[in-house]
Amino acid sequence: xxxxxxxxxxxxxxxxxxxxxxxxxxxxxxxxxxxxxxxxxxxxxxxxxxxxxxxxxxxxxxxxxxxxxxxxxxxxxxxxxxxxxxxxxxxxxxxxxxxxxxxxxxxxxxxxxxxxxxxxxxxxxxxxxxxxxxxxxxxxxxx
Length: 143
Fold this sequence. Notes:
By secondary structure, the chain is mostly helical.
């Protein structure tokens, strides 16, 4: 039996439930975003880009908050990080969107979107980390 933090896998059902609940919410939010900003193959997929950039920003903020907290709740990362934000972000759809744009004859959209999303996602994670750390550190620690 695999053990994690001293508890057998059979006793960590609450982590699975936290991931599942967060994933259901995050996936639902991503689907709603795709309904709000639909795109045909070859068109710029605004919804997928927004989901990935917003999600990456929030993942950066979450990781900063967790690392700065003295004792974060043990279900915080599974619910928000793996579940909600993992369900909200969608790099698999991103890859399909790049391929769809390329096969629809929109090579410029495929390249711009393909490279732009990776760059935007990296900047978003770093920005989320930096801004959150700046906001939650005590004033005297900033000087």
